[in-house]
């Protein structure tokens, strides 16, 4: 009790300090100064996001960028109207909302640009007109029911503004929520639709965020790719019209990531304005930027309206997912640091959120399906001798699965193959000094399985249509409650049967023939979203029932690397491509948004199984150490020299992993621009750093260059541990670290620095 009371007092004190501090007051200022117009200046440490209610009741976007102290920002709004062919809004002469920056636009009432929301009413029309009704401001943040979202540990993290807009004729309301994470410097948004009418309505489009800019002088940055080639950074200047990225694949996908950024043309890693929008969602999404006739840009992100609709009955609500908005005037690094800190501390959850992640060895690329208990133990034994901490048994331990054409859904241990019970195997591995982890693909069903024999209607399908298989599998219909319950039960049974410390949660195909036998015709377009809600419920149940387990999500590598997954599982297998050189681009792109600790990254054998490239073991390790580090090869086949090298790598990573996993990342060389890549992990107190340099291709007749570090204390003195040289922080940043000569392809160098 005493401890509790002391805690409470401390908390109150902290809350008071935050409230008193001028620096991070946000909505408080609004309440005190009471400006004439309803202007909301949402302030975080360095950023303002401002909007206002016009006298017509329209919600007008005013500003997003560097922090503005004043709350009297209504002058920014000018009722523009002189545009040929534009209708006058509310028939007010020379006022057309289409010429203004609108906070959450609808289509049709004189704004003819891309809307944020579209609802089909009982009379078949899709015209809605939402105007301000009221608002409330409170400290803290509400949960988004059934959806992953950022959270606050306690109310001192920030405040929430909720604005209710109403369409009086249709009797519909939308609640726009804005939460400011003051110290983290981020704003999160979402939208809830409420049907207060007596009729059913159909939501056709409900985006999570819309931001209008009265400029088009930006580059659009997106993360695009394919299986084994995920999240390459693509940067293009905005052009007139809509430029959109989306997923229609039933997952956030390998092809596009639910992230876009608008960057000033001159923005680079260190300087310039960058506005990032990221959706906390793992399903079909849309991210769009429309540059209109007047060179305004409208950025939007949310559930993909394509093939989506949602029937909302009287008194029902629909909650859209959360969008995270990050502005930085310090270029891409500034933006990434905000995303990384917020996601590490206020999106990821569970005991592993702040805990160093174990060095693992996974048997997939070592054995594929071809293993037995003896082989598994022999890999584990060698791994234990080299200091590796966790063994992960990948695909093939259940049902009759010796290749990928059967058994998904039959989560029963193949005791003949693993030569005993799972409990015995896990315990034997534990006795070697390793934790034990297990692979699952819970969302799938193989037509060749007992589960399919019993429940042929449990998969996503459309009656009468071919059930097209990918990797010989179909997807379970998670829009059905009983299917989700059955998965939960099967998973619990296995997880309780043995000392399992880690789970790899895989998902290996995209959705086709989307339909559910349980839903009526008017709800068929809800299936893809209902699937996500079902999946999130399963993940919430399992991760809270087994809080000590470290979960890593995976979808054929990085097919679902998104904030939705990270809310449940604090790491994701970044890509099925384990080649060190290919990984440079994948990890660079991923790190724009997602913290490196969330990126599963392994050393695999050579020639690499995906691209056939032969890279040195040292470079493979240097690159894998950018993320959560592990091995995925047959360690039994390694020579004693190689084993010795692995042992040293493991020892080294244990020394640096706190910095790599929880420090700040500085991308020093962009591998998309040239023949080198470099990055640095720097501890939060700037006292220790790990610097990695990789040169993909050997070059002839070139001079060795210097690598300029960033983020150091310029007055501090640092020792380069490997060379024993001593430099000022200013020298390391402005003169640079001497890289030296590197002979051959795929060479790398790693240095550690310590403040002395
Ligand atoms: C795809 C994953 O990305 C791989 O790492 C591996 O787990 C296989 N599935 C197993 O089928």
Number of helices: 14
Strand content: 25-35%
What distance lies between the first and last C-alpha atoms, to the nearest angstrom?
A: 44 Å
> What about the largest sheet?
10 strands, antiparallel
Helix content: 10-25%
In this entry the ligands are:
(2R,3S,4R,5S)-2-(hydroxymethyl)piperidine-3,4,5-triol
Note poorly predicted spans.
1-7, 18-36
Whole-number average pLDDT?
A: 94
| SS-based class | alpha+beta
Global shape? globular
Plain-language structure description:
By secondary structure, the protein is an alpha+beta fold. The protein is 22% helix and 29% strand. The protein contains 14 helices and 37 strands. Strands 5, 6, 7, 8, 10, 11, 13, 14, 18 and 19 form a ten-stranded antiparallel β-sheet that branches. The chain has an eight-stranded parallel β-barrel with strand order 20-21-22-25-26-27-28-29, surrounded by five helices. Strands 4, 9, 12, 15, 16 and 17 form a six-stranded antiparallel β-sheet that branches. A hairpin with a 5-residue loop joins strand 31 and strand 32. The longest helix has 23 residues, at 640-662. It is globular. Mean pLDDT is 94; it is low at 1-7 and 18-36. Bound molecules: (2R,3S,4R,5S)-2-(hydroxymethyl)piperidine-3,4,5-triol (DGJ). (2R,3S,4R,5S)-2-(hydroxymethyl)piperidine-3,4,5-triol binds at residues 364, 394-395, 439, 506, 508, 554, 556-557, 573, 576.
Blueprint of the fold:
Layout: H1 2-20, H2 27-33, E1 38-43, E2 47-53, E3 59-66, E4 117-120, E5 131-139, E6 158-167, E7 172-181, E8 186-195, E9 201-213, E10 218-224, E11 232-237, E12 241-246, E13 256-264, E14 274-280, E15 285-291, E16 297-303, E17 310-312, E18 317-319, E19 322-328, H3 331-346, E20 360-362, H4 364-367, H5 373-385, E21 390-393, H6 422-431, E22 435-440, E23 444-445, H7 450-454, E24 474-475, H8 481-496, E25 502-505, H9 527-545, E26 550-553, H10 563-568, E27 571-573, H11 580-591, E28 599-604, H12 617-624, E29 628-632, H13 640-662, E30 664-669, E31 677-682, E32 688-695, E33 706-707, E34 717-720, E35 725-728, H14 729-734, E36 737-738, E37 747-755
Parallel strand pairs: 20-21, 20-29, 21-22, 22-25, 25-26, 26-27, 27-28, 28-29
Antiparallel strand pairs: 1-2, 2-3, 4-9, 5-6, 6-7, 7-8, 8-18, 8-19, 9-16, 9-17, 10-11, 10-13, 12-15, 13-14, 14-19, 15-16, 23-24, 30-31, 31-32, 32-37, 33-36, 34-35, 34-37
Helix pairs in contact: 8-9, 11-12
The chain binds (2R,3S,4R,5S)-2-(hydroxymethyl)piperidine-3,4,5-triol.
